[in-house]
Amino acid sequence: MTTEPGFRTGPASPLSVPIAPTPSGYRVAKRTLDLAGSLLGLLLASPVLVLVAIAVKLESRGPVLFRQERLGLGGRPFTLYKFRTMFSSAEQEAHRDHVRELIRGEPTQARPEPDLWLPIAADRRVTRLGGFLRRSHLDELPQLINIVRGEMSLVGPRPPIPYEVEVYEPRHLRRLSVIPGLTGLWQATAWGRIPFEQGVALDIAYIDRRSFGFDLGLIARTLWQIAIGRQF
Predict the structure, then answer these.
(1) pLDDT tens, 74-102?
(2) Count of domains in the chain?
(3) Is 38 domain-assigned?
(4) 177 domain-assigned
(5) Fewer beta carbons under 10 A from the terminal one: N or C of the chain?
(6) Domain containing 195: what range?
(7) Residue 13 lies in a domain
(8) Is the pLDDT of residue 11 over 90?
(9) Does the pLDDT value for residue 113 go beyond 80?
């Protein structure tokens, strides 16, 4: 098993997910884009980062940043950073049950179609400011730090929470065969509009089609969708 350049390995993964073969030229170009894009993003967004941090601190008690364990390349754990959008006392059991149901969600007589991959409706754990940060995607800006650290990329499948992976089928684990991303084919084309299985199919399609030009196109599409206010 090889390691993608720039990825901080950390402890060995108990999942032993094979890493997808990647041409060396593309790896170097992708890492260069990741570093340039994330460092430039942090520089340009620094006033926004400061203002959001102050607003989060003033609105409710708790830390400014929300830290959560996610699984990255090969199933290795890392700490993902986001601006806190929930009350600090919020419990995670509701979300755990929600995503497990969506992943397992086979059609039933009462629910003929699998549920769409969507956040919990009317989630009372989310603060008023947190709702705005989620809609505008400003809560994701601290993940530029994860990209600088090599734990994430600008483009790739979103990194799952460990309790999501606990109910994965073997075919789902291929999402972990590349460095996770801030955005990806699923996010840029159909996030919130298709069930989990179809989303995984898009992530796998991205893995099979990866190229520098494809990454640039997905970044541009994501930025356009944020600019026009589409929810994903």
Answers:
(1) 999 999 999 999 987 767 777 788 788 88
(2) 1
(3) yes
(4) yes
(5) N
(6) 24-227
(7) no
(8) no
(9) no
